[in-house]
Amino acid sequence: MGKIVAQVSVFGERGQTRLAALFDSGVGLSLIRRDMADRVSTSIVRLSTPRALRMANGREGMRTDDIRLLVLRMKGQELDGRFHVIDDMPRKMIIGVDFLQTWEITLDMKKEDYRIGADPNGIEIA
Predict the structure, then answer these.
(1) d(Cα 124, Cα 4) in Å, to the nearest integer?
(2) Could you give the CA distance from residue 74 to residue 92 in angstroms, rounded to a whole number?
(3) Partner of 51 at 20 to 30 A CA spacing, among 44, 59, 87, 106?
(4) Which residues are within 8 A (CB) of 32 and not within 5 positions of it... i.e. 6 or more apart?
């Protein structure tokens, strides 16, 4: 498991913002705090039943019923992904395994940096 904090630009149909995102390979889903999500996006996909998110200790930590499709500008690339909205959490954004795997992002713990492996302009449709 690895964690890195880096600045990213977040875009939605309402606008953009820049924030410090936690890249965390130990979190299954990508998350964004509600105030940050509302700043850039109003397009909401509502889950019919709120999803309970469990912490590492097995206890319920947070709930979400709202998903936003957002675009992140990272290292000059624009990458899109699904972010579950959390009403209140210490971090503004957590980039989880779902996003990391989609864009083949690897974390370099020694340099406290990351590398994007997938080319968003080179996606093939078979």
Answers:
(1) 30
(2) 16
(3) 106
(4) 10, 68, 70, 83, 84, 85, 86, 92, 93, 94
* pTM, rounded to two decimals: 0.88
- The CATH number corresponding to 3-116 among 3.40.50.300, 3.40.50.2300, 2.40.70.10, 3.30.450.40 equals 2.40.70.10
Per residue in 21-45, pLDDT (tens digit) is 999 998 999 999 999 999 999 888 8
Matching residue, tokens 């994007």: 116
pLDDT in tens, 61-92: 788 889 999 999 999 999 999 999 999 889 99
9 three-class SS: strand
At 90, list the tokens: 């210490």
- Provide the residue ranges of all domains of the chain, joining segments of one domain with +: 3-116
Instruction: For residues 93 and 79, give the distance between their C-alpha atoms in angstroms, rounded to a whole number.
Output: 15
